[in-house]
Write a structure and sequence with these properties.
globular, 203 residues, 2 domains, six-stranded mixed sheet, six-stranded antiparallel sheet, 14 strands, alpha+beta, 4 helices
């Protein structure tokens, strides 16, 4: 008898769904579940993190009462699309690289609170995911876009079709095409500055 997965898998659209694929990256956006492990809110805090699955031998009971909701992403590129950033504790080196590139892009020193405030404005329009349109040719590798209602990853010279188990198909990246961008603008700027996110081996 198969066990139904928990509602804690996150798509590039930021949705929190019941999906079979667990993914390579964990994260959180606060306490989202009730005592019965049901998702009752979309987010609780502005600090949406992307964390390592394993860190210093720590063990957690998934979605235990009154503790943050463990969310799972296919990979870092998916977490970025959903609006998360690297954790400053378990992914300290990645966070410092992300922050340094963020400062290069914006030209000012910043901290986690400032990054989180900007990301929060870029990823949400009230309770709806904020997206924007631009030319595909201007987007850096690691950006997620929406085409035909599905999520695709911009990677090298191709577009990769997202699924919770991996990237399922590829198509050449069109030379000219106006697309809907899922990854927040501020994160896209960091990707353009040189941050190359971790991706699932199927990429």
């Amino acid at each position: 008898m198969s066990v139904m997965p928990l509602q804690n898998r996150v798509t590039p659209f930021g949705e929190i769904l019941r999906l079979e694929g667990r993914g390579l990256v964990m994260g959180n956006r606060g306490i989202l579940h009730d005592d019965a492990r049901r998702i009752v809110r979309y987010s609780q805090v502005r600090r949406w993190l992307t964390c390592r699955i394993a860190f210093r031998g720590r063990h957690r009971a998934i979605m235990r009462p009154h503790s943050y909701t463990e969310l799972f992403f296919l990979d870092e590129a998916t977490a970025f699309a959903a609006g998360h950033r690297p954790c400053a504790e378990c992914r300290y080196v990645d966070y410092q690289r992300f922050r340094a590139l963020w400062e290069n892009v914006n030209g000012v020193a910043t901290n986690a609170d400032a990054i989180d405030a900007k990301l929060h404005a870029d990823r949400l329009d009230r309770r709806t995911k904020r997206t924007y349109h631009t030319e595909l040719a201007t987007l850096p590798d690691g950006t997620s876009i929406a085409l035909g209602g599905a999520a695709w990853l911009v990677w090298d010279r191709e577009l990769l079709a997202w699924s919770d188990f991996g990237y399922t198909s590829r198509r050449p990246r069109p030379a000219q095409c106006d697309v809907e961008v899922l990854t927040p603008r501020s994160t896209v700027a960091v990707l353009s500055a040189g941050y190359r996110p971790g991706t699932h081996p199927s990429a």
